[in-house]
Amino acid sequence: MTVMEQRGAYRPTPPPAWQPRTDPAPLLPDALPHRVLGTEAAAKTDPELLRRLYSHLVRGRRYNAQATALTKQGRLAVYPSSTGQEACEVAAALVLEERDWLFPSYRDTLAAVARGVDPVEALTLLRGDWHTGYDPYAHRVAPLSTPLATQLPHAVGLAHAARLKGDDVVALAMVGDGGTSEGDFHEALNFAAVWQAPVVFLVQNNGFAISVPLAKQTAAPTLAHKAVGYGMPGRLVDGNDAAAVHEVLAEAVRRAREGGGPTLVEAVTYRIDAHTNADDATRYRGEDEVAAWRDHDPILLLERELTERELLDEDAIQAAREDAETMAADLRARMNQDPVLDPMELFAHVYAQPTTQLLEQRAQLQAELDAEAAGPEGAGR
Amino acid sequence: MTTVALKPATMAQAITRALRDALAADPSVHVLGEDVGALGGVFRITDGLAAEFGEDRCTDTPLAEAGILGTAVGMAMYGLRPVVEMQFDAFAYPAFEQVVSHVSRMRNRTRGAMPLPITIRVPYGGGIGGVEHHSDSSEAYYMATPGLHVVTPATVADAYGLLRAAIASDDPVVFLEPKRLYWSKDAWNPEEPEAVAPLGRAVVRRPGRSATLITYGPSVPVCLEAAEAARAEGWDLEVVDLRSLVPFDDETVTASVRRTGRAVVVHESTGFGGPGGEIAARVTERCFHYLEAPVLRVAGFDIPYPPPMLERHHLPGVDRILDAVGRLQWEAEN
């Protein structure tokens, strides 16, 4: 018997007719990003929601400007601005119920603030006096995650745990276009779909991962298409259309809450500012591209819709701007105060109880500080 | 005082029992990992748990270690107490980013607001004839990461007691299971398991006067065997089983070495950058004036873990340990 004949002899009987587990067609995103503003659908949107989104966008834009200014004054170590992406940041926060959880990345301090986190506490990480400045349980906002996409499996685990406990809780996790290349993105989406966890993944595709454009990041038709491979629906939305982002996210949240499982939402937007204040965007993109996106500004789009439909007058616009100025002035004033630092706190939270070794090291630092306070003479040397 | 009938039990049985008792005692305990359900794990450690507690409490996950630990972080954030199984030492590396960037830091990052009571079970070490990626001693990586407890049992009773303590801990614990000792037996009564062993405490496994062998996990039985063999040479060796690498029990180790005046650190992990360097430094800093000789290390060679047919040359054995003891600058009368 030849090797080939042998192979044939051991060939198993053909399996039953193979079928896909899920019909992929309903999972596919629309060909073009979903839009509401400037379309007939806008008339069906609750005017109160639109006005609420508008005031949050104006505040958000001012917050971004103020935080950027604080880097120039040396009050923030670094600030990754979400200017131009305010519609995504704000909609992600407003779409959730109080009992839900938000999982932001480092660019999403605005989403945390829109959910109720004190801006000073949201910016603590970037000021550098501690890592997470807020109690995550106070507003159910997970710590800002710096390692890309690593917070996504946390959102899945939390949502899964809530469902195991019988709680009606949805987790919304934020990530950028660059983050979709990370392994944790893949693992989180796969776990979420297998467990049918009540999670919404919001990808803000802002065009760049620092300097690397999307074309060098993925060969997928859209990032929303990635959902299909996991067996969850992918939705494509205009990320600068606050009403559309809110609508798509609200639908995904509702679906998750009703036991329908996770959704991947790709919001197409643009990072108007550089990656951070330390970045130079002129090295990798032209001003004409930025200008085109400025014409598609989220505040501009919403303001146009509201004023054309006479849902917003000059007074209301002025009131929104004044409210934003008040927020900025308060933020500026509080950020201009030096934070109170306690070096002893370095040892306080590493473990539930500090180890013997940490107690020794704390004593060492305390002795150094005492000597420093006593000055050269007090040190007795 | 009643006498308890002691029956022989394996370390594997004791670990299974600890998981079962923890699941029964606390509804927030959840076991998750690859093949931990119907199969009971590749080492059968979770045997019967899914059947007894249901698949929601003992869950077969997708094959993705970062995903397993990453979702466990989220579960812990929501008040659960996940116990994750990494199938083998070297298969735990994909989860390393979650270990270093989140598991170890979350309590500190949030000023204590968000502790993560997660137990990461990792079968580790060699000596079982495993092919590549199945025999690593990865403890040094975890030891170098502040915020983690790193624990490893060497006896059946400790396997039970330390795992119960690990699961009960509000801090993350890397629980390293010496897979070569899974089938080792001790007299232990599974009906009346010993009290929960404290984390962070070493134990003198064998008292002696001549020198201290400082060791842990799979090397403990080897050191006890070496101590027996050393009697023929006239050496009465003390064996300290660290049990916890983090936190490190300086007190027990220091007391022992001050008594004996000589020390050898023994482990399978590589010597360069391995735990032995840290331990030798700590001993020297604390016992310098008591020492009759430099602290020596018997460790795995500084090579990638060898193929199974060559591993016996790599692993610290009785002869290599006795050689090291012989180099502890004995006076002529020894």
**What's the main sheet of chain A like?**
5 strands, parallel
Overall number of strands of chain B: 14
Strand order within the widest beta sheet of chain A = 1-2-3-7-6
Radius of gyration of chain A: 25 Å
CATH architecture group name of the largest domain in chain A: 3-Layer(aba) Sandwich
What is the number of E strands of chain A?
A: 7
Radius of gyration of chain B from the CA trace? 20 Å
Q: State the CATH class of the largest domain in chain B.
A: Alpha Beta
Largest sheet of chain B: 7 strands, mixed
Q: Please state the overall shape of chain A, judged from the principal axes of the Cα atoms.
A: globular
N- and C-termini, Cα separation of chain A: 93 Å
Helix content of chain B: 25-40%
Q: Can you tell me the CATH topology of the largest domain in chain A?
A: Rossmann fold
Largest interface: A-B, 40 and 48 residues
Estimated helix fraction of chain A: 40-55%
Short synopsis of the structure:
The complex is a heterodimer of chains A (381) and B (334). Chain A has 381 residues and is of the alpha/beta class. Chain A is 45% helix and 8% strand.
